[in-house]
Structure prediction request, 458 residues.
Amino acid sequence: MNEDAAAWSALVVDDDAGVRQSIRLCLENDGARVLGVATANGALEALERSRFDIVLLDLWLGQESGLSIVPEILRREPDSSIIVITAYASFETAVQAMKLGAADYLPKPFTAGQVRAAVRRVLESSRMKQRLTELEEQLGETSGDTFFESTSPTYLNFLKTAARVAAADCGVLLRGESGTGKNILARWLRAHSSRAGAPFVSVNCPALSGDLMISALFGHKKGAFTGAMADTAGKVQQAEGGTVFLDEVGDITPEVQARLLRFLNDRSYERLGDPKERAANVRIIAATNRSLEQDVKSGRFREDLLFRLNVVTLTLPSLRARAEDVLPLARHYLAFFEGGQRRGVRTFSPEAEHAMVSYPWPGNLRELRNAVERGTILAPSALIEPEDLGIPRAANHPEGGLSRSGPAVLGGDVSIEVLEREHIARVLARAASLESAARILGIDATTLQRKRKRYGLA
Prediction:
């Protein structure tokens, strides 16, 4: 992990300069970025300017009670963990602070080892909670996926490139048809990067627009818009040191595009309604199934933002382009859904397997997964047929299925039409645009569009 991504931050709030200094030296030796302040107001001002993983708070700040700002700290930074510093005589007050949301307490006098132990304990607890949240999200999004297991040369070559990009810690633009697994790939890139142990925060761009999108990304000040009842941190701040994934970035509005461009240029931003400039250390991974170049030509998308997002592009192959993986994926999904349905062992009929191999899967992995789930629910017997999957029988099989030679290959028992369809599908999957694919194929774009419709690739 690189040094910037690995660092964590601590705010020490104590009116004793000697205590602040001793804690600062102790935590800096553990790799932390540490700021010390002497007052409650100083603590709140520091929280306005930056995010802290840990707040070490003395319960008595001169004549002030540190206890009074515990709720305010957590309101402003709900992801921060508070360790209260207390004398033995105020143990009951420390318990009260923990009831208000503090994570732990540190009794005075303390040793450097006790400080490190308390901080490491709280950090580990926070990371475990974060990891559990991410695992729950992944379970909902990718259960049953064998996304990175493949026998397809096309897809294996793609994964080699993706591995190099993951390690580079640069901005990435993921392209590809709907359902190819851009969200899953974004998490894989994070897991194989120097930021693997840091937060992964996803933003669904089409779900929000205007001020709501700006607020979601960068946060807002109380009163910045109708319904803004409190100061709120945005996704960028929540992901400090980690990765922000912008799903369907092509759908953001011009105002959001301007804010995002500024952030990508200098890694600084302001919360909505707040002029204070903040800095962030995050990696941006964006995804789209749109042609952003066409959107630039039509004025929908800023060209300078496209350049900033498009440091490295990874175009995910469609399922058509990795036809060797269709049946292994389908069988994996079947095993997964059988466990959920508890209706006994099911298998695909030969006709169903041939139909799956020949079907174009315009919805890619998502459509295949849904079809298999449908089959496990609707099949009246242990044998799943094409009709149960909701796909047509293949036309050139004796019973409506494809030849048993499997995916279309040169020299195989397939027609010229099947080979042409397969070739067009694979070129479309890797080409940046329809026009580019037409040039590769040596035909004009109108002819290619007509062939797409004929072969069910449109």
In short: Confidence is low (pLDDT under 50) at residues 1-6, 139-145, 397-406. The two ends are 43 Å apart (CA to CA). Residues 112-142 form the longest helix (31 residues).
